[in-house]
Amino acid sequence: MRVSPSASARACTCGSASASNEAIGQSTGEIAGELAMHFERGRDFERALQYRRQAGEHALRQHGYREAATHATRALDLLRALPDTERRARLELSFQVMLAAALTATRGYAAPEVHGVYVRIRALCDRVEHTRELYPVLLVLVRFNLIRGALPAARDVARQLLTMAEAAHEPALLLWAHSASGVVAFYAGEFAASLDHLERGIALYDPREHSPEPSRALLAWQDPGVSCLAHSALTHWMLGHPARAVARIHEALTLARTLARPLSVGYACHYAAALHQFRRDHAAMQIAVDGAFEQATQHGFGILVATGTAQRGWLLAEQGQSADGLARMQEGIAALREVGADFLLPGFLASMAGTYERIGRPADGLSSVNEALALVEASGQHYWTAELHRVKGALTREADEKAAEASFREAIAIARRQGAKSFELRAATSLGRLWASQGKAAEAHALVSEIYAWFTEGFDTADLIEARALLEELGRADGRQMGARPRRRRA
Predict the structure, then answer these.
(1) Is the Cβ–Cβ distance between 471 and 438 less than 8 Å?
(2) Global confidence as pTM
């Protein structure tokens, strides 16, 4: 039952335990801020903090980020009146996490004040005992460091989470630890390890038990089941399993829509758009981008607005509207920089560089590639490194075939180390075309046919169709006819 303002005032005036407990049971987040002010005036800081927490969490659930930041800041001011104990440190930690969620939503991850909050969260984590209650806070730190491109820091916290979860033997904690570890490994370019963690998370996930309560610190993360399924889809594509990737992304979308949480739906659509961009399925990508954009604009998810803008730009360029497409891509990339989402920049810069290559602007393309490679070296985010070297080779081919061949070879070597069969296929196809133009059809055929024969699925995707066409062309050039597909390995 909702408490009227007059009842709230009476509860605060009398100050009795029974009255306050009744108010706590009856009040909602809509009047919790008023109750907090009454208790502050009476210098009952403990109860004032209770209501500040309730009001701030209610504001976050309603996407009232500025209001939530106000409640968190006021609570942090009140905490100074309490003795400096571990209990106060834990209380401060909970409000710093609330403030972090509110500030990142409105100002992004690049703002100095946001960075300061996360630095304080990290320091508080080192002060308090590492109990189960600390777990969601560490997840927030993984996310912060990952998005800013600080991969070593994200990896350290993810390892700490996994160690704690394995010691506790709790399925819920293990689920979150595998989700975090899998995502970090994906962006590090460690695709086999990523898939192992993500599939373990999928096996543990039960939406009735593990979908997080939005009022908690886990608000900063997507639903763990959606995250594991979506990143598993991207990882399957990297490892050369296009059909399995599509199946997983459909599972992620279905789960997100069943949960009906805007953040999970928006991110599932974003990951679907990314996967279909990998596959170069323009129609499917357009549907997914529109779905992500709808959630992003309706609920103010800044990162998804930025990614959606860049993805729409790529689609426009693919449809022949290169000027408009590049302008959109540049706008989206600038927005990602503004909010501090550095972890996505290598992939988007590579996409833009590929567009520059197709329209004959190699200098601009190389500028994008070199920026992306510098980011990769600084951050350790190697998920797109092989493709960056392939695109670099394509951009330098006209001016310097020897340099282009070196870039293609580097792309193949990196892809092989990572087990990234889809990138290996692309790079081998690019090198095969170069060799064919130099009269080395037999060498090109041997290179491309080896990786093509590895695949057992996805033969209707653009990369495999192009590789097949090149093999047929090379076969004719070398005096052979490709009457049947090269023999493929068994699944």
Answers:
(1) no
(2) 0.84
